[in-house]
Known about the structure:
Layout: H1 2-21, E1 40-41, H2 45-48, E2 60-61, E3 64-70, E4 77-81, E5 86-89, H3 91-95, H4 104-121
Antiparallel strand pairs: 1-3, 2-3, 3-4, 4-5
The chain binds zinc ion (ZN).
Residues 63, 81, 83, 85, 102-103, 105-106 line the site of zinc ion.
Amino acid sequence: MKQGHERPVDRIAARVVGAGVSFEFKISDGAVNSFLPLPTRAPGRAETGQSCFVDLTGTKLGRLTVIGISAEVAARWVVRCVCGTYGLRTARAIKAAAPDACCHQCHVLAVAKRKDLERRTGRLVDVREFLK
Ligand SMILES: [Zn+2]
């Protein structure tokens, strides 16, 4: 009788511990993830004077939308994910972004969902399937 009561608790505990261990990568030092809007500014002479400058404001890449030029960090654009997280990207990163581009939060969540599906069903699905 006593074992029957303990098993479900053990199973939940194992799941919680497993979820904690399954995060296989950490946020890199250079990555910016903010839940508060990051300040932007209008393009200045430094940008508009260059013939190669393209205003990327409004550009959509996967889950991300370009909000504007970062007012705080040089040569970075502020992007907003559909989940509400703000981040910084270079123009090159925006132009080269994959159609499933997303913020770090969404990526971590997608990886966790994939691991969970694999653990439950044995099926290994492309992580992009969880970013649709
Ligand atoms: Zn996101």
